[in-house]
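Instructor's aside before we start: the two examples that follow are unrelated to each other. I chose them only because their records fit on one page, so don't look for a connection. First example below.
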Amino acid sequence: MLKKLKPLQPKVILDVATGTADVALMAERMLKPEQIIGIDISVGMLDLGRNKIEQKKLSHIITLQKGDSEHIEFPDNHFDAVTVAFGVRNFENLEKGLTEILRVLKPGGQLCVLEFSKPNLPGIEQLYHLYLGIIAPEIAKMISKNKKAYAYLNDSVRAFPEGIAFTDIMEKTGFKDITCKRLSLGISSLYTGKKPY
């Protein structure tokens, strides 16, 4: 996902659904921007991310704040790039979230979305559904007592409008030069789109 942004050389990046800031930290290392803002609705995850950022002495470059994809508290045309890794399927209103992302992107700025998808290769598809639907929740129940979190993951992946359905929504909300590339035998997909000039 971040390699896709290298030609753009973004100076100011927004990482939506940043969680514990793993993508923000990778973006700092790979892209060397001037500023990265990470937003997430989970204060607990942001606190963990802040600890990682402080340990690496990167607080002057990476800032985390509580924020929602549907109400991004930044002005229009502010960011060179926006990333979302495994978070867009959790947007309450997908079109509204994408419209907000488009608003805060500078003209020519790029959105990169990495998201789970469902493999369609014979054999891989069956193994994937067996693992995600049955094996992972049972292992989670034994280890963490939290089977519901893995059941939610399975449900949210199944409900997400992947592939052409998602690129159609990106186009509808105003993105141009949209691409979709399936990765890891179809278990995830990388979507990119630009804000028109």
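Example two begins here.
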Amino acid sequence: MREKNKDKNIIDDLKVTLRVQEAKKRDIGRNIARIDQETMDKLDIKTADIISLIGKKETAAIAWPSYPQDNGLGIVRIDSRLIKNAGTSIDETIQIRKVITHTAQNIVLAPISIKIKSNPRFETFVKRKLNNYPVAIDDFIFMSIGISREVTFKVISLKPSGICTIKPGTVLHISEEITEDNEGGADLVTYEEIGGLNEEIMEIREIIELPSKIPSLNSRFEIKLPRGILLYGPSGCGKSLLLRASSNESVAFSISINGPEIMRKF
């Protein structure tokens, strides 16, 4: 029989460590984590239960069964939003734990990099879109407003503490103060948003990400790192988007420079 931990959100201290893999296209933006049946049985997790993902930070996700081909591989598939909230990256390991969630009594969201005037109607609209959404403090929430606009919010206050679920009775407030995100949350471009460049993405990941994540590969296999990468193609094919995504995915510092900034006719 399971005993509750001192933390009111934690059922017990049982955790499972899994390796992070990218979500399939159909799961992006749904806040779900796909885990295999063996892990679900071990943690006594059922479909649609709320689970805790623990990387450098802790966040919440909705448990969902893995795809048949993923069974027994020891992986969890989550999208870039959950990867960011958990403070991890693809091919790194995170811990998964079952938790008991409570209804959020009060929650304060701060917009990232854009100013939004507090408005009861807009707050009601946001709360309605986030109904049954599990959140934790410092989570980033990405919300589509209109056809092509997305606004990023950060959870700056949450009562009670721990992992909570937003319900119709939750008092939600949007702060008028802008919060700056040093991790680039306002401009989160990921590989998920790039279509039709799967082969190019794989090559970029092999050249940029693997050597930085596993430095031993360089000496073991005598891999000589390239001094640079040249992307070429017609305008609008996704070169700049691909570089922005690789910078975000590899947590690398990047500077965007246009030709006229360094070369002029004078």
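Helices lie at 37-42, 80-86, 120-129, 198-213, 216-220, 239-249, 259-262.
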